[in-house]
Design a protein that fits this description.
With 243 residues, the protein is mainly alpha-helical. The protein has a single domain, classed as Growth Hormone, Chain: A, CATH 1.20.1250. 68% of the residues lie in helices and 0% in strands.
């Protein structure tokens, strides 16, 4: 008798989520498209600031070096969330983790609204990176668990679309507001905060797919690449480094 393998949030880090077998009891759960929308919305917050840097640079007087640091802080926040925070959704549940991602995205927007210096921009970007890392791992696992027919390929494609679509949408929206809106460095984030409200309402209809543990054991996941794809990974990584 075949034994179903549960989907772990940490599987996102080593590319095994798509191969997981979804138990039949999970297939009837609700909220697949809601989670996809939450994924896209939180990720959009990560790219909202990009078109606004041309406004902030002369205002705060920073150059290319500080701009690079701002981008690096976002990446650090994302990595820390993936390794240290996201695995907790395997014990606390997907919905609490998604709620935490939304909360960090909202906190990032608030800090951007209040920012009056480079330090404020750095803090806001760090919070945004944490939100991105949490939602990337948690939503990917949740989509695999919530897909109605248990089709891992469809769940994987939806996760990719939510991720990349959200990143692209954030840049596009902020660019339009920066071009035509009044006081875009404020207006962009006010609109984003308003857009996050429906995600909270939507989260209420998402079925929980993880049985909450009585006690929480903090087990950060390391980064790894499956042996069968290491050669291809090294090739792609090497190409990316040299471009």
């Amino acid at each position: 008798m075949a034994v179903s393998t549960p989907v772990r949030c940490g599987d996102w880090l080593d590319l095994r989520t798509g191969a997981a077998v979804v138990p039949a009891a999970i297939r009837a759960k609700r909220g697949f498209w809601v989670v996809a929308a939450i994924f896209a919305m939180v990720q959009a917050g990560g790219t909202l600031p990009i078109p606004l840097y041309v406004i902030w640079q002369p205002r705060y007087g920073f150059g290319a070096g500080v701009l690079t640091l701002i981008f690096a802080v976002y990446a650090v926040g994302t990595l820390l969330a993936l390794v240290l925070i996201s695995p907790l959704s395997d014990q606390l549940g997907r919905r609490p983790a998604l709620l935490l991602a939304i909360a960090f995205a909202a906190a990032s927007a608030v800090v951007f609204l209040l920012a009056s210096s480079i330090a404020g921009l750095l803090a806001a970007r760090f919070l945004s990176g944490i939100a991105s890392g949490i939602v990337a791992a948690t939503a990917t696992a949740a989509l695999a668990e919530l897909e109605p027919q248990g089709r891992s390929r469809r769940a994987s494609l939806t996760a990719t679309a939510g991720n990349l679509g959200g990143l692209g949408l954030g840049t596009l929206f902020a660019g339009i507001v920066a071009q035509y809106g009044h006081d875009p460095t404020k207006l962009v984030f006010w609109i984003y905060l308003a857009a996050l409200v429906p995600t909270l309402a939507g989260l209420a209809v998402v079925s929980e797919t993880v049985r909450r543990h009585d006690s929480v054991e903090w087990r950060p996941h390391g980064l790894s690449v499956p042996a069968k794809v290491r050669k291809r990974f090294a090739l792609v990584a090497g190409t990316s480094t040299t471009t």
